[in-house]
Amino acid sequence: MPERRKGRATKKAKRKELPEPEAKIRAANVSVASNTFLFCIKMVAGLLMGSVSVLAEGIHSGMDLLAAIIACLAVRTSGQPADDKHAYGHWKFESISGVVEAALIFIAAIIIIYQAAQKLLGHGEVEGLGWGVVVMGVSAVLNFFVSRYLMAVARRSDSVALEADSLHLSTDVLTSVGVMVGLALIALTDQHWIDPAAALIVAALIMKAAYDLTRKAAGELIDVALSNEELGTIRSVVIEHTGMFVNIHKIRTRKAGGFRFIDLHVVVHKDMHVHDAHGIAHHIGDDLQVKLGAKTNTLVHIEPCEARCSDCPAECNHTADTDVQ
Rounded mean pLDDT of the chain? Predict the structure, then answer.
């Protein structure tokens, strides 16, 4: 027994030590496989049952499958090293994929709304309710575990593409449960209008998820500043180094994929040796990497102090300016 437990622990340790690029690709492949399976069973069940809500879920999974394929390609591309044409790397491919995925979700929602409206006007009946409940149950359970796995990898690697995929599947869990409830109510009440009504609710939830994803992914494409929490971390690092320089200003931040980029100007005494000023720049950059992660790139521009203080060469008591833009 102890040997078996030791073997299991060793296997778990090996899984945890999987290099980040491989872990992201594996997660993306899992998403493609699960969405392929769910798309097939939902479309077959929806067509056999004549249920627009189940078909809506099938279309949703079809869009998720296409999004998962795009995310998989984005993860592979973003992991490529920097080259002459992409000196800052390929990390924004993940953000681009997030925007494309959001657009696909919007399209899926529009298709679902159209089909639901047609069903409401046609007053069609739904058959084989039991099979629909089973299919939706399988979908909810599978998506729950796959979305948790994707989110765990996304948080470790700071991957926008995998996070987007995880959010899609989390929405699928809610919509699948909603369709299950709708089908159960039809069985109890024989009110078939519940089916397209449930589809409309699914569409509304999908559009909300697409909107949230668009804001996040597009923000990185237009170089939105880091979060308030991360800016607060930068301020704290600046304050810790107050005694090493005269002042810091023109702090700019942005993010691309899992990488954070920070530019700042450090004002030092005008007679400071270049070697010492260079050391201060490295010291600040290293501390920011410790606080924000290894994927933090800091570019420090050194400026001479223009103040004409008689005692400045000996002791400078200026405090840091932490006005982060």
Answer: 76
> Mean per-residue pLDDT for 263-286?
85
Residues contacting residue 184 through CB under 8 Å, at least 6 positions apart: 129, 133
The contacts of residue 130 (CB under 8 Å, 6+ apart) are: none
State the Cα–Cα distance between residues 25 and 76, nearest whole angstrom. Answer: 7
- 257/236 Cα distance (integer angstroms): 24
Looking at residue 202, what is its pLDDT? 73
Place of tokens 């270049």: 274
All domains in the chain, ordered by first residue: 2-221 (1.20.1510.10), 228-304 (3.30.70.1350)
pLDDT digits (tens, 9 = 90+) for 104-131: 778 777 877 776 777 677 655 666 677 7
Q: Which tokens go with 225? A: 């500043």
The torsion of the CA quartet 213, 217, 223, 226, rounded to 10 degrees, works out to 60
Cα 243 to the center of its chain, rounded Å: 38
| Percentage of the chain modeled with pLDDT above 70 | 82
Backbone phi, then psi, for 79, in 5-degree steps?
Answer: -80, -5
Rounded CA separation 210/177 (Å): 19
Residues with Cβ within 8 Å of 283's Cβ and at least 6 positions away in sequence, in order, are 241, 244
Torsion region of 50: left, alpha or beta (phi above 0 gives left; psi -120 to 50 gives alpha)? left
If you write DSSP's letter for every residue of 241-307 in order, what string do you get? TGGGSSEEEEEEEEEETTEEEEEEEEEE-TT--HHHHHHHHHHHHHHHHHHH-TTEEEEEEEEE---
- Give the mean pLDDT of 76-83: 72
DSSP code of 57?
Answer: H
Would you say 163 and 24 are in contact if contact means Cβ atoms under 8 Å apart?
no
* Residue appearing with tokens 């999987």: 18
Could you tell me which of 222, 264, 270, 67 has the C-alpha nearest to residue 150?
Answer: 67
Residue 323's pLDDT band, with cuts at 50, 70 and 90, is very low
